[in-house]
Amino acid sequence: MPRQKRKPGRLRRALTWLVLLALFALLALLAYGWLRQHPEDTPWAPLDLARPIGMFTGRKLVALRGDFPQCRALLDRAGVEHTVLAEHREGAQCGYADGVRFAADDPHISPFVPARLGFACPVAAALALWQWEVVQPAAERHFRMRVIAIEHLGSYNCRRLYGRSSGDFSQHATANAVDISGFRLADGRRVTLVADWKKNGAEAAFLRDVRDGACRVFSTVLSPDYNAAHRDHLHFDQADRGAASWRACR
């Protein structure tokens, strides 16, 4: 009987598939290990304010809008001292039931000027992360010192967008926004949007760094680059636009 021919091609293909499967398993194992060490970069891991800002941190912060107890628990675990504001209602479109205020003497958080600023809890959580992960590192980088106070133009304001008499209400109408106007450094210097945004040098670079970093934790960030109405402040809010287009940074 004639000898049956060998089929080396089939054997090579089988070995190739085995090698590919082994490589895939190794990559999956490495990816799993990396993701366990970086939960901030996974959509399913719970938010932790003690972790660095990751790919999904901003969306998780926005999701806190519907879970006041969880938001407060996150602040507590991160050591952020705060008080709960009394529920406030003003007409059908204005008011809040998730307002908080940072403690004036909390060493973890720079004080806001004027004092006694309150805002919706998801804004507070994002502000805490923004200070730790963006503002203070930027101040050390540009000025070799810390920010000791943050100046603002307010949070809650029962009004429509741009103060118009009709149209959609602003995120300020539910305390879900805050306007930041400047910063005070440890040596007493002030860095403000209205005075320093258009300059060259460390002040302008610092302001752009804190603006860009805010885009990672707030769903909306508007700066003087957006329009003249924001020439003197950075507007931050946690508007929920859905997963497809959750962020606006201008």
Notes on the protein architecture:
There is one protein chain. This protein has 250 residues and is α+β, with helices and mostly antiparallel strands. The chain has one domain (48-249). It is 35% helix and 19% strand. The protein has helices spanning 8-37, 57-63, 68-77, 121-143, 193-196, 202-214, and strands spanning 82-84, 88-90, 94-96, 99-102, 112-113, 118-120, 147-154, 177-185, 190-192, 220-222, 234-237, 248-249. Strands 5, 7, 8, 9, 10, 11 and 12 form a 7-stranded mixed sheet that branches. Strands 1-4-6 form a 3-stranded antiparallel sheet. It has a two-stranded antiparallel ribbon with strand order 2-3. A hairpin with a 3-residue loop joins strand 2 and strand 3 (94-96). Helix 4 (121-143) packs antiparallel against helix 6. It is globular, with a radius of gyration of 24 Å. The N and C termini lie far apart (80 Å). 30% of the residues are buried. The model has no long low-confidence stretch (mean pLDDT 90). Pfam families: Extensin-like_C. Residues 70-250 form the Extensin-like C-terminal domain. This is Extensin-like C-terminal domain-containing protein. It comes from Sphingomonas mucosissima.
